[in-house]
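Regression test attached.
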Amino acid sequence: MEQTILRGRAWVFGDDVDTDLIYHNKYLAETDPKKMPQFSFEYYPGKENFAKEVKEGDFVVAGRNFGCGSSREHAVYCLKFSGIPVVLAESFSRIYYRNAINNGYPVLFVNGLSEAIKAKAINDGDELEVNLAAGEIKNVTNGKTFHGDAVADLEKDIMAAGGLIEYLKEQAAKSA
Amino acid sequence: MGKTFAEKVLGKAAGYEVKANDVVTVEPHFCMSHDNAAPIAKTFKKIGVKNVWKPGALVFILDHAVPAPSDEHAVNHKEIREFVKEQGIPNFYDVMSNGGVCHQVMCEEGFALPGLIMVGSDSHTCTYGAYGAFSTGIGRSEMAAAWATGKIWFKVPESLKITVTGKFKKGVTAKDLILKIIGDIKADGADYMSVEFHGQGITDMTVAERMTLCNMGIEMGAKNAVCPPDKKVLDAIKGKAKSDKWEAIWADDDAVYVKELSYDLGDLVPCVAKPHTVDNYAAIDAVKGTEIHQAFLGSCTNARIEDLRAAADLLKGHKVAVRTIVIPASWTVYRQAMKEGLLDTFLDAGCVIANPGCGPCMGNHEGILAPGEACISTANRNFKGRMGNKESFIYLASPLTVAASALTGKISDPREVL
């Protein structure tokens, strides 16, 4: 992965952000991932305008167990196609994590983020710098830094291919 | 050193000895999908493989929105029927009287079996652990990949052991136990783990009660949840196993766990999970009297014949005070309830009965709430807006507590009605 520094604004969420809050079940019949961003966080109190106001390059920042609940991949697509380069959270639910990796979408486990959010060390609109490969995050607005776990080797091949389906296509092409 | 259930079952499937945190690639015995088989089929076609690896390993059960309530759902269903025909998939449960909620049908029809590796494109696939299966929910891309390759990778999970002893007091059920556990360890308390239920308290439970426990494993973040495949399970699968690959596998006595918890059933009281998280536990005394506008007795968590009997026993001879929607988990359950006169009991009490399926559980149809309304429900999730309206409130509870509350229009203690 490149050693690029990503810069963008933070959108800050709490612990246990469930899949209905990220992408409500009302819109599950939608099957075009590119149409999903318009519904992002519609049910999250105080973030109803996320879909309208989010800019490409912004970050989603959350506490523990981000993406708990349903297995819906919409909750990954809606953020990926909003131009959010990475989701930063203290931890992710198992299915959300797998869905992200399987779609070539980076998520970073960031130590202490849940408490930092509660202590207002990261707030909506703060400017962040994220070095994804190194797992380093700097809150430019207040100078605080955070450290995340780099993506495990296991998932790197899938991520490098751009997702599980692309990875399988590559494998099929190689063996043909 | 002994092995956990997950280490044994995944080691058997991989063909070599494994321990927690190893990564294995295994062939699933069954892959279950519901209405989302349609978008999965589209993703499958992008991979460039013409045929699914093993048509007989795929099981499709329509349940999320049946019969189709909108043109979008109808198109989804049509695409699934076409894919079933094209691929020659034998195990297809359409909108017909052999169907119902997918997880119930998987168990009734003999797909859920001890020692099998089962995946489903639904987070509540963990339910089949009640039959001793290693079963877990996966996303759509991953399911498409499994159809194409017949393979899936897992990190062998660490395990959480929950030992259950004692006996339920009157009015207390398996739902109260699982809501208490989730309230204690929270929504991420078992993230990525295999949850094993042990002890006499589990042995004493029916398979239906164990399904309620395993079904909600995902609500504490678990990869899978499982109960011992004892005689009750073997009796339940007798003559209907859809695979001969099953084997009763259970953890060794000296297996190593990352965490161990124990519960005495005698300590439990009726309870609810308050809005808007499943871990928002409240003992019945703390919420008694809260006004409700709807009661829902249904879902993959608590709509089996045992649940309907329990609720009907409490409703018999009384009238409900709020609209009460009863949705048996499958048409088999529906028919049995009809034979036993339970449907009459529900109708006499003023309940409405809808066709088996997920109903209003995730807000598709058949019981959407209005702003400001509260519902007491036997389902498994009370996320904000789950039942279709973000200004509504969902309290999760047992069939007994839901029935007691339906009678009064307020959250009520079933022990005071029984």
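Expected vs. actual: identical. Chain B has two domains: 5-244+257-263, 270-416.
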